[in-house]
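Checked the freezer inventory, then went back to the computational side. Two predictions to log before the end of the day. The first one is the construct we discussed on Monday; recording sequence and tokens without edits.
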Amino acid sequence: MVILVKEGDSRTKIMKRMLGILAVTGLTLAAGVAYAQRGPAKGPVALHCNNDIVALCPGATHTPQSRRRGDARACLERNIAKVSPACRTALQTTGRGRR
């Protein structure tokens, strides 16, 4: 870490600058950890389409941290004629399905 120190800066000024940098770094790390710990999706598609995802989209997951986010929804939309009525309604009234 590089701390910019100008000639004539007091120790107090340098310490304040270091504390500011540490505070920003800590907040950034905390926000990243909080984002990564989000659990399973809880919206209408997750609520009404889990059985359809298992049956029609093997290997797809509907979680916020999924590496291939959106795969489950894309699969369900490709198979819209085969999904349950509750799942179809969820797909048509949320996300990309809203029109």
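The second is the one RB wanted added to the comparison set:
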Amino acid sequence: MNDWFTYIVELIFGCGMFFNASLFIPQIIKIYKMKNFSGLSLTTFAGFNVVQFFSILHGYLHRDWLFMCGMAISFILCGTVTIGIYLHGDDSSSLRHPRGRERLSDKEA
């Protein structure tokens, strides 16, 4: 019974890891179609990437390959959104420009 229980838990966990990664796909598709990054937080997505990066390292250190691969896929997909926000997002993002919109008014003057 213990082997059967372990198998079921591992199967559900593995499916959950890939489902977690797939949650970024609709956002990527929406961004690609609309070419609009407004309303997306660079801080939030960059924070997800930091957590995912250290989760990958944790999986590696504990030789949990399923966890590591699931987090790596999430990292790549979330990173796609993060890079898009950084390159094409709103100029007022605090990670891109600490002074926000003041930077725009300095150029206009």
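For RB: The radius of gyration is 18 Å. Helices lie at 2-22, 25-34, 42-61, 65-88, 102-108. Let me know if you want it refolded.
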